[in-house]
Structures are given as structure tokens and as C-alpha cells.
Amino acid sequence: MTRVIHTGDTHIGYQQYHSPVRRQDFLDAFEQVVADAVADDVDAVVHAGDLFHDRRPELQDLLGTLSVLRDLDDAGIPFLAIVGNHESTRGGQWLDLFESLGLATRLDDAPTVVGDTAFYGLDHVPVSRRDDLEYEFEPHDADAAALVAHGLFEPFAHADWDTEELLTTSTVDFDALLLGDNHKADTAQVRNAWVTYPGSTERASASEEAGRGYNLVRFGGDAEDGGDAVDIRRRALETRPFAFVSVDLREGEGIERVREQVRQHDLADAVAIVEVTGDGEPVTPAAVEEFATDEGALIARVTDRREVETETEVDVSFADPEDAVRERIGEMGLSTAALDVDETVRASKVADSNVREEVKTRLEDRLEDGDLGAFETGSGVVEERTGDGNEVESDAGEPGGGVADAEGTEKETDAEGTEKETDAEGTEKETDAEGTDEGASDASADDGQVSMEDYL
């Protein structure tokens, strides 16, 4: 018998609502999963992708993750994982670094046997490249087999991955697919295999009202327990409370009615999400947010879903402006390449002055790889539509042109992507596309990401 914790979508480093406290919450949730694994003495922790929220996690997030993984290693429990879409980089993955330190195993097409179960891995694969997948895996001699993958699989909502095709085409008969990407926990059976999502370990979006948790999965066991059957049980995690307050205002009702409803909830250290509907008086979101924080809320966000009398109908959300952007992008049917550009401008931590060069590099890489399908309209999949919490922050301004930095130094980017700085004395300096003075040591990889060695 093999017992593992199946988790995923921990999104470490996500500073939700621009709050450092919420950022720590995501690391704390992962730490709680590992603490449960040690207490229960499971055979392994299996992570189905999106360990980090960003492909460029900051030092504090890396160090925190290393500390948690060392606790798991000290207990003699292996960490088996794959790479998700949020953390995927063009070159080496952060998971490779953890593996080189002996703290993780990156699953692939070769079996990693734990107990009497063989585990395989399939990193996130863009829709445009899935036609090339052959699902060829090396054979095993274990009693059971599980594939760990990251994507939106059938039969769940918003699926774009044919689960039955994978199972019938695969060279290995899988007893279970342990999945990540969908933040909603769910389980189904396709053919003879169990297909399951554990959900995210923290609420990465206001739409994720249900409690968070992970799966405890058992392969095999005594005959009276079902023999070689796969047993999947969900366990809850104690995470930061969210208070969801819905207020339907009648005619003549306004801010006082909203406050009355807010008072009905325990807001101590909670994230308060207030939704206003109905026909009542106008309500100032800032006033509601201030009242909620005075009542003890850590963070308060207000969404007024009432129609505004303009030439067009408007649904204004003050809780999460990024939701409106993501929804609009999802309706546009953009290509994979276009979505990649959007991610670079809005979601990544690329410096303002480097956005233009980063976009150029990513598009050139796709052309060099012959990935022409990525430029076809509708080839992209906006995964945010699943409620999987892809709220992102970007300090990127308009790409290209002159940009003034914090010191008032004017920067210009020429046609080659080289920045020219003019200091207070009028002296012109050239910096490369990464913002490094020419002649200085190059601590960055070609794709603009600091190398793992230099990072640590």
C-alpha cells in the first residue's frame, strides 16, 4: 500500500490584494500541507504544478520554500512534482534546482516508484503543442501507476484536454491521474482510472468561496479495503477566513443597510468580499471598505453589480479590477502568442524598460521553434476563466519610448532594444536589454531571468 498527499496550485509568492500578509498566507498553507505529511508519515507528497505563482519568484519566496522542503526531507518523505504554467520558464526550472539540492524529484516519462506505486509526470503543455504528444512512458513493474499532470482535463468544467485520448493512447495503464491547474477540488472516473483535482491550498480569487484543502490518496491495501483500488479522500486546510457579504438593496436603502449586513459577519483578520446588488441608493465602495476594516477585517473589497445608466450597461467591480481585464481578454479569442504578450505586459515582473525586448524575444522564440499555430486566432486558452486565481500585478507601463526612472533619469530604447540613459550632467550611457551597464558582469540569462545560482 502507498499513501501520498496530492496537492498543487500553492502559488507561493502571490501578493494578493497587494498585501504582504496574504503573500505569507500562501507559503503558510504549503507549510501546513507538509506538516500534515510529516505528522501522518505518508510515503510522499505529490505536487501537481504551480508551486510558485510567478516564473520569477523573489528571494524570500525561494528561501521559504527551501525551508519547508528541508523539513520534508528531514522526515524522509520524498517530494514528487511537475512544472505548472505559472512557474514555467524557457530554460531550467526552479524544480530542477530543488532536485539538484536533493529536495525534490521532477517527475517525467520514466517511473519513480514509491512503495508499490509508479509515479509519472507531465508538465503543463500549451494547447497549440498537444497534437505532438504521443504519451509514451517507460514501463514499470509496480502494482499501480499514477500520472501527475497540470491542465484542464475532461470531464470537468472548461476542459481543453481529452482525458480519454490520453488514457487510451498512453503506453502505461494508469490507475489515477493526479491533476493540478483547476482550483476547484473534484473527482471523477474516466474509463478505469480515477481523475482528481485537490484544488488550491489558498483562495487565489474571490470566486473560490469553498474551503481549501488537499487529497490523501491510497493505492492498494488489504483485500477487505478494496484490494488494489485507489482511495481518494479530501482533507481541509485551515486558511485565512474570507467573509462573503451579499447585500441586495431595496429602493431607498443605501450605505447603512450595507453596514448592517457587514456587521452580521465575523471579520476578525478576515478578507471581506462585499457584493452589492438591487435598486437602492449609490454606495461609495471606499466607505464600505473603511467600515469593514474598522470592524477588524484584514482587507476589504467591494463589488457593486448594479447597472449604471450610461449608453452601455456596465458591471463595475471594485473588489478585483483584474477580473474585468481577464474576462474581456477571455472573450477576445486571442492566439497563444497574443496571450503570451499580455502575460508579459500585465503579469510578469519584467522591468518597464525591458518589456519591449522581452516581448520581442518571446515571439522570436516561437518562430524559431516553428510554433506557427500559436499565432492562430483562438489558439490561446485563458485559464483564468476557471477561477484558478490568476490575478496578477504588473508595474509595466507602455512598452518602448522614453521612460523616466525613480531618480528622474530619462531612458530611451532604440530599435535594437538597447537603452540609453542620460544622467543629470547630460552624459549618455548605454545599457543592455536587461538594464545592465555595458562592461558590467552579466548575471542574467538570455531570457531576462536571473540565473538560479546568482539568485541564491
Please work out how many helical segments DSSP would assign. 10
Radius of gyration, CA atoms, in whole angstroms? 24 Å
CATH structural fold name of the largest domain:
Purple Acid Phosphatase, chain A, domain 2
Total beta strand runs:
20
Mean pLDDT: 79
Which class of the largest domain in CATH terms?
Alpha Beta
What's the CATH architecture name of the largest domain?
4-Layer Sandwich
Give the overall shape, derived from the CA principal axes. Answer: globular
Order of helices and strands: EHEHEHEEEEHEEEEEEHEHEEHHHEEEEH
How many domains make up the coordinates? 3
Q: Give the biggest sheet.
A: 6 strands, mixed
The protein's oligomeric status is single chain
Order the strands across the largest sheet as they lie in space.
4-3-2-1-11-12
Uncertain ranges = 309-314, 381-456
Characteristic terms for this protein:
single chain, 456 residues, alpha/beta, Purple Acid Phosphatase, chain A, domain 2, 3 domains, six-stranded mixed β-sheet
Description of the molecule:
The protein is α/β, with parallel strands linked by helices and 456 residues long. The chain folds into three domains: 2-236, Purple Acid Phosphatase, chain A, domain 2 (4-Layer Sandwich); 242-319, no CATH class; 332-455, no CATH class. 24% of the residues lie in helices and 21% in strands. The chain is built from ten helices and 20 strands. The protein has helices at 20-40, 59-74, 94-100, 163-169, 255-263, 285-294, 321-331, 336-347, 355-368, 452-455; strands at 2-7, 44-47, 79-81, 105-106, 112-114, 117-122, 144-150, 176-180, 186-190, 193-197, 213-219, 230-236, 242-249, 271-278, 299-304, 316-317, 403-404, 410-413, 419-422, 428-431. A six-stranded mixed beta sheet has the order 4-3-2-1-11-12. It has a six-stranded mixed beta sheet with strand order 5-6-7-8-10-9, with helices on one face. A hairpin with a 2-residue loop joins strand 9 and strand 10 (193-197). Helix 1 packs parallel to helix 2 and helix 8 (336-347) runs antiparallel to helix 9 (355-368). The longest helix has 21 residues, at 20-40. It is globular. The model is unreliable at 309-314 and 381-456 (pLDDT under 50).
